[in-house]
Specification:
The complex is a heterodimer. By secondary structure, chain A is mostly helical. Chain A has 14 helices and 2 strands; from the N terminus they run αααααααααααββααα. In chain A, 68% of the residues lie in helices and 2% in strands. In chain A, helix 5 packs antiparallel against helix 8 and helix 7 packs antiparallel against helix 8. The chains are: A mainly alpha, B alpha+beta.
Amino acid sequence: MSCIFAKRISTIVLYYKIQPMSEQELENQFQERIDAEVKIEPREWMPDAYRKHLIRQISQHAHSEVVGMQPEGNWISRAPSIRAKMVLLAKIQDEAGHGLYLYSACETLGITREELIEQLHTGKAKYSSIFNYPTLNWADMGAVGWLVDGAAIVNQVSLQRTSYGPYSRGMVRICKEESFHQRQGYEIMATMAAGTPDQKAMAQDALNRLWWPSLMMFGPTDKDSPNTGNALKWKIKRESNDVLRQRFVDKTVQQAELIGLTIPDSDLKWNEETGHYDFGEINWEEFYNVIKGNGPANKQRIKHHKRAHDEGAWVRKAATAYANKQKEVLV
Amino acid sequence: MSVENTQGQLWEVFIQSKNNLPYKHVGSVHASDKEMAIQNARDLYTRRSEGRGIWVVPSNCIVASDPQDEEAMFDPSDDKIYRHATFYKMPEGSQNI
């Protein structure tokens, strides 16, 4: 009996090939797969808006990894010890790797690397607003690892369950590698907080400056989030901005208290009823201003990326010429 | 939108994590030639001793089944349980089989 059933399925598949399904039928079938937690793979049918949303989100994520190397790169030659320097180099190399995993995932959706880079340079594609803040001193390396990577991990752990296969697999890989990033940052903060009063003050100052921008990394509140609706329905995002932000706050408060630092929020208070910390209002005006390109370092970040890209043009040209010469050798 | 391709071609990367284990697909890299592909794969996918061997294959050389054919291709084997050892009844008390 099941043999006949299998045959019937082949007939149905054949029929669909001859008689294409309507957009609506395809979309229903797509949603059924999403609801059943089936991962969507590159060559499968998907709604245009799903593809667009993914390209926007994954490219933004990739650009963030790559641009995120800049505020840290500044401190490689200024690291206080060989150990700190090795660790920072390894971390930055990871960020480059994470950018590449994500670009690859994004390219499976039918956009090229050149187009992605061009969108970054023209400002069509965004990257995380946090990287438009400058890193002023070594304590900022601690705060970036602890808070910025910490916030990124909360987001990325959730995204491991995203519905698009290549994105999900990239996230699994990134999460495996990322936990050292947060720990090395917290180690720097703990060391400075236990140092001289001046060192402790530096650590506190870094926390003061980077705390609120870290909370902004999760994006607008749910009621103002224009991209959340379909993203949750399609399971591109698995949890809302506010849920993820709350999780980050809940995790981080104890870590600050343990090393004797104070989170710069007078409204921060444990709420026995909800089992979460209540926290103060985020300065959304600042958030939107930075997104619009008016943050302290927006121009510098893009200018630097363009310069590095342009200065590497001859390498790409030479490699392409060499590849063309080798063509006959290549398969 | 068309921008000139200066990023090399796409290669799929397969890593053998230990001797005698199968090579497993881990992702892709851009490279303009074979050596660069191996080097990029090594830098990108084996930063934490994930591999003892790497294969790189130009992505356009891979022939893949069509996701639309998934049921037709693979469902027919679902009901052939007699292909598994557990299908067969062994006489009570039989040993070493």
